[in-house]
Amino acid sequence: MMYQKLLQEVTKNHLFDRHQKVLIALSGGVDSMNLLHFLSLNQESLGISLGIAHINYKQRPESDSEEDYLRQLAETSGFPFYYSHFSGAFSEKAARDFRYAFFKKIMIEEGYTALVTAHHADDQAETMLLKLLRGSRLRHLTGIKAVQEFGPGQLIRPFLTVKKSQLPNVFHFEDSSNKSLNYLRNRIRHDYLPNLEKENPKFSTYLTELARENQIFQSALSELTRNMDVTDLTFFQSQSPALKEVLLGEYLEHFPDLQVSKAQFLDLLAHLENKKSYQIPLKKDYELVKNSQRFTIQKISPRTDSTLTSKVLKFQETLVFQGFQFSFHEKGDGIALFSRAPLTLRGRQMHDKIDFGTFSKKLRRLFIDEKIPQNERNQAIVGEQEGQIIFVQTANNLYLRKFAESDTMKATLYIQKL
Length: 418
What we know:
This protein is 37% helix and 22% strand. It is an alpha+beta fold.
């Protein structure tokens, strides 16, 4: 009966009209096993062929036997079976990133245009409370979408209108980790939501409806602002403070992996209030580029080795390079060196990193963290001695390698800006 209702809903919303090859994310739990049963029973009427993708997280003793069962089930059903084993430090986020990267890879390699997951109405309420607890901004309190773009096609969730308790009790595996309160989502599921529902039995339904209403509200805002030239600073700066926030928020939706915090959002607004020109690194390899007329947010272009010509500075010599004078002499005022081997002065290279003693940092990351403008990054001078980066000199900043306390000073490097 439930499957028939779901089929009517799926058909009414045309969820699979664009798709022929559909990949099912199968964990082995009751919800994903129901998804497999539902789609396999109705694949002919929906006009789709199915494949199964499974991640073995290697976190429980029974994980391997469950993988074997699902593989045999796929073979018996005539469905292709794709699997991967999680590696690295386990966390909820790491696991999620790993599985979706794997699903996307399989879709691209095997020609699937839809990935289907078994998220249901309970997941919707849990996701909303999770976002509230983490302080998500209003525009992101929209819950889980039934359909969204993903990889080479779409991510489809046909069970979002159904509570887990409404699904048939088909054969499935129980994951003991789902009861562990070490994970925030499990605390929400087993502790926070049940207690809140003691105050309001319809609290989960309220959260789901809030997500739906906010999605409608955000969609309406997008339609109303679609034809506005947000990046025209004259237009942008002429708007009210409220509309500026809305317009910048809409613009940032073009960069879903950027995910700025509230503080970073307010910083961006402040930068856009004046006529100054900027080229400011943001996060996730993005930058804000702004002049007196327009602004844009863009990916920082990948750069290969610097085109600066390198020079060799020998002990007891002085030379001029890129607007600086470098003097390499006996002990005195300046940067302490622990070798008299020649210094190579050059531009930065892709994999350069500098040792700060307790940690090392790639120059690319250092420049982003220090908000070094792109033109200064391109002109940065790297000082290398015996295969080690000793210093990095930008237009206004000097970064030095941390030496061991036991090293003996043998020379001095003096740097003067000309």
